[in-house]
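General statements about sequence and structure are easier to judge against a single worked case. Part of our work consisted of pairing the sequence of a single chain with a tokenised description of its backbone. The amino acid sequence and the backbone structure tokens for this protein are reproduced below.

***
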Amino acid sequence: MAPRSLDALQEHDCIRYRFVSTGRVESWALRQPASAPAPRIPETFVFNNSEAVTHAARAGFGIAQFVELMIRPELEAGTLRPFLREHSLERGALWLVLPQTRRTPPKVKALGDFLARLVEEDEAGAR
């Protein structure tokens, strides 16, 4: 059963992501009143690979927070489902940074075009 409040998160098995570069566990971005204390999010399972987090959530090991774009197929298939949407925060941005050169290598251009299409499709699907 999905938690019905932020406080209920502490009663669930939570799947978290650890940054390889820093060793820090990623904090969950949650919208809440400024005066409210941050909820305690358990670290039941911690992975340093986003695919492992996705697989663990899909297998039912616990709940996780995702960038919706990354799990669109699972949401559409119903293998993962959202909850506490009223507490979701948008964060971050997707950047493709290139060295300044006269000619962008074709593989890099193809990656940029692919990422742009992916984001455009996601934004169109979210409307």
About this structure: The first helix runs from residue 50 to 58. The helical segments are 50-58, 72-77, 106-126. The CA atoms of residues 18 and 24 lie 6 Å apart. Strands lie at 15-17, 45-47.
